[in-house]
Amino acid sequence: MVNQYNGNILFDMKSIVIRVDATVTTGAGHLIRCLAIAEQLEKFRFSVTLWGAIDLDISHHYRVIDYRIDDTLPISTELLIVDSYSEDSAQLNYYFSRVPTVVLDDENNRGIFKATAVVNPIDRNDYERINFQKCLLGFDYAILRQQFKHACRNEYSRRNRILLVMGGSDFGGLTLPICQHLSQFPTISCRLDVVIGPGCQDKEFILSFCERNGIKVYENVGNIETLMACAKSAITAGGGTVFELAYMGVPSYMIEIASNQRPAMTVLKQTGYFESGSKEDIDLLNNIVCWIEAVDKMESNIDGLCNIVDGNGAKRVAQCIYDYLMKKEG
Question: pTM, whole model, 2 decimals?
């Protein structure tokens, strides 16, 4: 059965399940990009269920099945989206044998697997492409939250803030030591905007330190794009936020917290607008200061940075899923 909706022929509430985790260990990034896709899928009148270990308090309205309690693939699933690194190639192949499967990937390190489609914001050339009906690769498939499509970018020459955002859980525990180090440089710390998420373990220490040192802190920010619009530079974990910063035209120092972040960091660094380091780097804090000082002298033209990501990645993925199921149905 089909419905007419916004000019498109649509299915009558086909069920899509998203296998994703959001814990203090995994962070919130996987869930955030899946929610962006889910919002786009809803425009096609799909019913979306989240299936995973979801502990972080990230606002959404979707039904959740706790994977730790019930790891059986829901029987009503028309298509499965997987964005979880706890699922190896054997498990992905099992899912694909049962239901059309779309895999959101970053590192291509799980061995050979088959899927209906693989999605990666980096245009990798090491996939066994014969195993996929669709390869959705490159910056066109960088997943941004929907709110960024309506965000306004301030003129770069008028920006003066420095944004520090280490993800929903700050898994590397770097927010506090970065704040402590930057507080030694008054011309930097007075411009610092610190964002902490729902899984931040050092929350009370960060709040106390920043209050004593006159540093602005924002908790569980729902409109982070407004902070990015004012940022001349940013310090961030190397997850999905780096693509949002690129879209908003913010040169950024990326810190690798997990190995799956490395491919995107490597490609973005090649653009000349990003620098990268690791939480293991001995001189990480000093390198951040040097980089901020260098960015302060950067030319005001950042058109090239703003053109890297166009913000339509989630829409493209949802459209591909819709097209596939339409073809399969008819």
Answer: 0.89
